[in-house]
């Protein structure tokens, strides 16, 4: 829209999206307490602010839709319409549509789903049934480029990426799927297709987004992908007849993208952001300023919005500072080592007890000795000053590192805020009554974890609702309250963040877990008999394990828990399960505070540098070969009554099979509830390390999670303890078979 700056639009989008998210929390609060006037007022103010802002910048479809929502909320506020679960469901759907409209505008298009018209008319029906005046109908806005052929939903970055692929003669396709709405598991159709396509193609864009698909089923689904596979392959691979009723494949050309670019440059994009026009009810257009009536919602704030990319760049610079700090520390140690060595050799000279023969002329020799002592005194003074400056530099860089790392920290509320709606909707679909309690929303986590953490926690919550919490009838028969309870809480402890999801449901039947594992061929009956309850629970994390009697769109407890465990471990964390029959289950996720800069123990293995995260290390000890104990053919170490398996990193990383003689450096590390002894060649010391992720397409080595630059400028490899432990036995056994060796 002409006259409206991009900065103003960006500010509106940022505020509107935040208000929409807050709406959801208030709606759920209102559902629990229909007379919660504070929640009603908060929702009304949010809708009013969005409506006013949308009108100001010409987003008329958002303004009109939110206006009807505001009318409905006003009647609720005046107690003319009662708060019911059906009304809350309608308002939540309306909130989702506003969010979809904002997302569409952010991508340079206009929301054009018929669903908005349906929800709009339902809101009008509520208004009419409560004695209100007839409201105008709502027309679905048209996108600037019509029909299924439209590519206007692509962002400028996506268009440039497509052109880059096409210029290199890589094929790019638009795949348009129509899903079977009668399919039993239709809600996961898009996710199944997304996973199938991801196996053979690079996905450039999906429409609708994952956020929208998590909330509701959409019969139409688009993917824009780059793949060298042909159309026949794509159709055979992804046309699953139970899921898909129609698949249209279009190979994109440079003219498709260039034509779209030209149309937008020529002004067609303006059509997707029309100027405000009088509404059907005769309402006057909004003035080009913020409406005075919304001024009550404006609050002063000391918050400064900064693009996350700038913070990431700042953190990269701090990382370079940390690397150079380590380098300066090493140089300082070398200088002091050399200086102290010279002082030791020249001690008689420096103390004045002895003169050096620097010249045959006695007078000249006296002058040279005096001058040399003076130089040493100057050097000593300079070194002392250098040490003081280096100490201050360390203090400043550590404070800067701590503060910049803190900028990456966000309240876990960003993750938890989406759970109440999910629990509500899933419980309703399953005919269960569930109260969700959330604690510790102020707990901060690294922003790099937020997206990766959401899916595992969603899976855990769904399992709790589906298979943990009993039906109201079953709970009453057990003497429990009719309504189940799920508690999700977060807290800091030491260098970790803990997230716990607990329920008061039926718990996990350990004997049933064993039986299912036997049925699926995961373990033998004899092995199952010897498993402790804790070891039996660990079976839940095996791929393919399930206790569900039948497949539903939600998982039974344990289904896919291997994926949850793997995802958490990729973040440097761990998962533990605690359960009691008919009492409930608690799943604890343990995560590091940050993913950017960590404290590590620098060790040497076969001449190369490796970094072990300090948080996983309990102690370091020196052992002899004679200290090892053979248990079932594997070397162990008796550490205060605990038999700890030994892992030789030379064998694992470099396939060296010869025995190591003399002193061995053993690092006692903890993974889960078990200790492991990591045997290395040398322990260099502790240092802060900046994590430099590897490109997994180019470098993928078991036991290595990332790289870093250590103090001397060389590359260090950050050890993935979980991956090392999981892969160690297979790699070492294979090595021993190849070399014909035994321990």
Describe the fold and architecture.
With 743 residues, this protein is an alpha+beta fold. 45% of the residues lie in helices and 20% in strands. It is built from 23 helices and 22 strands. The strands form five sheets. It has a six-stranded mixed β-sheet with strand order 14-18-19-17-16-15. A hairpin with a 5-residue loop joins strand 21 (704-709) and strand 22. Helix 1 packs antiparallel against helix 4, helix 3 runs antiparallel to helix 4 (85-106) and helix 15 packs parallel to helix 16 (447-468). The longest helix has 46 residues, at 362-407. The N and C termini lie far apart (75 Å). The model is unreliable at 140-148, 265-302 and 550-559 (pLDDT under 50).
Summarize the structure.
The protein contains 23 helices and 22 strands. The protein is an alpha+beta fold. Helix 1 runs antiparallel to helix 2 and helix 11 packs antiparallel against helix 13 (362-407).
**Large-scale geometry:** globular
Assign the structural class, choosing from mainly alpha, mainly beta, alpha/beta, alpha+beta, or little secondary structure.
Answer: alpha+beta
Q: State the strand order across the main sheet.
A: 14-18-19-17-16-15
Sheet-strand content, in percent, reads 15-25%
How is the biggest beta sheet arranged?
6 strands, mixed
Q: Given the structure, what is the number of helices? A: 23
**Nearest-integer average pLDDT:** 78
Radius of gyration computed on alpha carbons: 33 Å
Question: In terms of per-residue confidence, which ranges show pLDDT below 50 for 5 or more consecutive residues?
Answer: 140-148, 265-302, 550-559
DSSP helix fraction: 40-55%
SS elements, strand count: 22
The N- and C-terminal alpha carbons lie at a distance of 75 Å
